[in-house]
Specification:
The structure is a single chain. This protein is mainly alpha-helical. It has one domain. It has helices at about 1-5, 10-35, 50-80, 85-115, 120-150, 150-170. It starts with a helix and ends in a 5-residue tail after the last helix.
Length: about 180
Protein backbone atom coordinates (compact mmCIF):
# COMPACT_ATOMS: atom_id res chain seq x y z
CA UNK A 1 0.00 0.00 0.00
CA UNK A 2 2.92 2.30 0.71
CA UNK A 3 4.23 2.06 -2.85
CA UNK A 4 0.76 2.37 -4.37
CA UNK A 5 0.13 5.53 -2.34
CA UNK A 6 3.53 6.93 -3.30
CA UNK A 7 2.93 6.42 -7.02
CA UNK A 8 -0.50 8.04 -6.74
CA UNK A 9 -1.94 6.57 -9.95
CA UNK A 10 -5.71 6.16 -9.76
CA UNK A 11 -5.65 3.43 -12.41
CA UNK A 12 -3.77 1.18 -9.95
CA UNK A 13 -7.00 1.11 -7.93
CA UNK A 14 -9.37 1.09 -10.90
CA UNK A 15 -8.00 -2.11 -12.47
CA UNK A 16 -8.54 -4.29 -9.39
CA UNK A 17 -12.06 -2.88 -9.07
CA UNK A 18 -12.78 -3.79 -12.70
CA UNK A 19 -11.47 -7.30 -12.08
CA UNK A 20 -13.76 -7.53 -9.05
CA UNK A 21 -16.67 -6.32 -11.18
CA UNK A 22 -15.93 -8.85 -13.90
CA UNK A 23 -15.66 -11.71 -11.39
CA UNK A 24 -18.85 -10.68 -9.60
CA UNK A 25 -20.63 -10.30 -12.92
CA UNK A 26 -19.44 -13.71 -14.07
CA UNK A 27 -20.57 -15.34 -10.85
CA UNK A 28 -23.94 -13.58 -11.13
CA UNK A 29 -24.34 -14.97 -14.65
CA UNK A 30 -23.49 -18.46 -13.36
CA UNK A 31 -26.18 -18.09 -10.68
CA UNK A 32 -28.75 -16.88 -13.21
CA UNK A 33 -27.93 -19.74 -15.60
CA UNK A 34 -28.41 -22.11 -12.67
CA UNK A 35 -31.95 -20.76 -12.21
CA UNK A 36 -31.25 -19.08 -8.88
CA UNK A 37 -32.74 -15.87 -7.51
CA UNK A 38 -32.00 -13.89 -4.35
CA UNK A 39 -34.60 -13.64 -1.60
CA UNK A 40 -34.85 -9.92 -2.29
CA UNK A 41 -34.22 -8.51 -5.74
CA UNK A 42 -33.65 -5.03 -7.07
CA UNK A 43 -36.66 -2.83 -6.32
CA UNK A 44 -38.90 -2.73 -9.37
CA UNK A 45 -37.24 -5.74 -11.02
CA UNK A 46 -38.39 -9.30 -10.58
CA UNK A 47 -36.27 -11.63 -8.45
CA UNK A 48 -35.87 -14.04 -11.37
CA UNK A 49 -34.02 -11.43 -13.48
CA UNK A 50 -31.90 -10.06 -10.64
CA UNK A 51 -28.72 -12.04 -11.27
CA UNK A 52 -28.90 -11.43 -15.02
CA UNK A 53 -29.24 -7.69 -14.41
CA UNK A 54 -26.40 -7.83 -11.89
CA UNK A 55 -24.21 -9.71 -14.37
CA UNK A 56 -24.79 -7.03 -17.00
CA UNK A 57 -24.16 -4.07 -14.71
CA UNK A 58 -21.55 -5.33 -12.22
CA UNK A 59 -18.58 -3.96 -14.15
CA UNK A 60 -19.87 -0.39 -14.56
CA UNK A 61 -21.28 -0.47 -11.04
CA UNK A 62 -17.89 -1.33 -9.55
CA UNK A 63 -16.32 1.47 -11.61
CA UNK A 64 -18.92 3.84 -10.12
CA UNK A 65 -18.28 2.52 -6.60
CA UNK A 66 -14.55 3.06 -7.15
CA UNK A 67 -15.07 6.72 -8.01
CA UNK A 68 -17.72 7.28 -5.34
CA UNK A 69 -15.90 5.54 -2.48
CA UNK A 70 -12.55 6.99 -3.50
CA UNK A 71 -13.98 10.51 -3.72
CA UNK A 72 -15.64 10.20 -0.31
CA UNK A 73 -12.38 8.86 1.13
CA UNK A 74 -10.44 11.74 -0.38
CA UNK A 75 -12.83 14.35 0.99
CA UNK A 76 -12.90 12.81 4.45
CA UNK A 77 -9.12 12.40 4.53
CA UNK A 78 -8.65 16.06 3.59
CA UNK A 79 -11.07 17.08 6.35
CA UNK A 80 -9.02 14.96 8.75
CA UNK A 81 -5.90 16.95 7.87
CA UNK A 82 -4.63 14.74 5.06
CA UNK A 83 -2.38 16.07 2.34
CA UNK A 84 -2.55 13.24 -0.21
CA UNK A 85 -3.51 13.51 -3.85
CA UNK A 86 -6.80 12.38 -5.31
CA UNK A 87 -4.95 9.84 -7.45
CA UNK A 88 -3.26 8.30 -4.41
CA UNK A 89 -6.58 8.12 -2.58
CA UNK A 90 -8.34 6.43 -5.48
CA UNK A 91 -5.46 4.00 -5.94
CA UNK A 92 -5.37 2.81 -2.34
CA UNK A 93 -9.17 2.77 -2.04
CA UNK A 94 -9.53 0.55 -5.10
CA UNK A 95 -6.89 -1.93 -3.98
CA UNK A 96 -8.14 -1.93 -0.37
CA UNK A 97 -11.65 -2.72 -1.55
CA UNK A 98 -11.00 -5.13 -4.41
CA UNK A 99 -8.23 -7.36 -3.02
CA UNK A 100 -10.11 -8.58 0.09
CA UNK A 101 -13.42 -8.77 -1.76
CA UNK A 102 -11.92 -10.99 -4.45
CA UNK A 103 -9.89 -13.22 -2.15
CA UNK A 104 -12.16 -13.34 0.89
CA UNK A 105 -15.63 -12.96 -0.62
CA UNK A 106 -16.06 -13.72 -4.34
CA UNK A 107 -13.70 -16.71 -4.48
CA UNK A 108 -15.23 -18.31 -1.35
CA UNK A 109 -18.73 -17.65 -2.76
CA UNK A 110 -17.85 -19.47 -5.97
CA UNK A 111 -16.20 -22.37 -4.15
CA UNK A 112 -19.15 -22.79 -1.77
CA UNK A 113 -21.59 -22.67 -4.67
CA UNK A 114 -19.69 -25.21 -6.76
CA UNK A 115 -19.05 -27.61 -3.88
CA UNK A 116 -22.18 -27.33 -1.70
CA UNK A 117 -24.71 -25.48 -3.84
CA UNK A 118 -26.65 -22.24 -3.77
CA UNK A 119 -28.35 -22.91 -0.44
CA UNK A 120 -25.03 -23.05 1.39
CA UNK A 121 -23.82 -19.59 0.36
CA UNK A 122 -25.79 -17.64 2.97
CA UNK A 123 -24.67 -19.92 5.79
CA UNK A 124 -21.02 -19.94 4.77
CA UNK A 125 -20.98 -16.19 4.14
CA UNK A 126 -21.47 -15.60 7.86
CA UNK A 127 -17.89 -16.74 8.33
CA UNK A 128 -16.00 -15.18 5.43
CA UNK A 129 -17.94 -11.94 4.80
CA UNK A 130 -16.76 -10.35 8.08
CA UNK A 131 -13.18 -11.27 7.17
CA UNK A 132 -13.57 -9.55 3.82
CA UNK A 133 -14.95 -6.42 5.50
CA UNK A 134 -12.13 -6.43 8.04
CA UNK A 135 -9.58 -6.88 5.25
CA UNK A 136 -11.03 -3.87 3.40
CA UNK A 137 -10.90 -1.76 6.55
CA UNK A 138 -7.33 -2.75 7.47
CA UNK A 139 -5.97 -2.20 3.96
CA UNK A 140 -7.99 1.00 3.60
CA UNK A 141 -6.63 2.42 6.86
CA UNK A 142 -3.09 1.47 5.91
CA UNK A 143 -3.35 2.93 2.42
CA UNK A 144 -5.08 6.14 3.45
CA UNK A 145 -2.62 6.70 6.31
CA UNK A 146 0.21 6.38 3.78
CA UNK A 147 -1.47 8.47 1.09
CA UNK A 148 -2.48 11.32 3.39
CA UNK A 149 0.06 11.15 6.21
CA UNK A 150 -2.65 10.86 8.84
CA UNK A 151 -2.77 8.57 11.85
CA UNK A 152 -3.98 5.00 11.46
CA UNK A 153 -7.08 5.57 13.62
CA UNK A 154 -8.08 8.64 11.62
CA UNK A 155 -7.43 6.71 8.44
CA UNK A 156 -9.57 3.82 9.72
CA UNK A 157 -12.45 6.24 10.35
CA UNK A 158 -12.03 7.70 6.86
CA UNK A 159 -11.96 4.23 5.31
CA UNK A 160 -15.02 3.14 7.27
CA UNK A 161 -16.95 6.22 6.17
CA UNK A 162 -16.06 5.72 2.51
CA UNK A 163 -16.87 2.00 2.60
CA UNK A 164 -20.26 2.65 4.23
CA UNK A 165 -21.21 5.21 1.55
CA UNK A 166 -20.24 2.94 -1.33
CA UNK A 167 -21.99 -0.01 0.34
CA UNK A 168 -25.21 1.99 0.66
CA UNK A 169 -25.18 2.65 -3.08
CA UNK A 170 -23.92 -0.78 -4.18
CA UNK A 171 -26.23 -2.59 -1.80
CA UNK A 172 -29.26 -1.54 -3.82
CA UNK A 173 -28.12 -3.81 -6.65
CA UNK A 174 -25.48 -6.23 -5.39
CA UNK A 175 -26.59 -9.45 -3.74
Amino acid sequence: MTEIAARGRAREGLWPMLVLGALHGGFSLLLWLGGHAPRVGIPGLGREAHYLFQAAFALPLYALLFWLGGSVAHGLARRAGGQGSRGATLAVFGVAYAAPMIGLFIVPDVVVYLVWGFGAIGKAMRFYAPLAALGCLVLGAWGLAEAHRIGRWKAAGVALGAFVVQAAVGGVILR
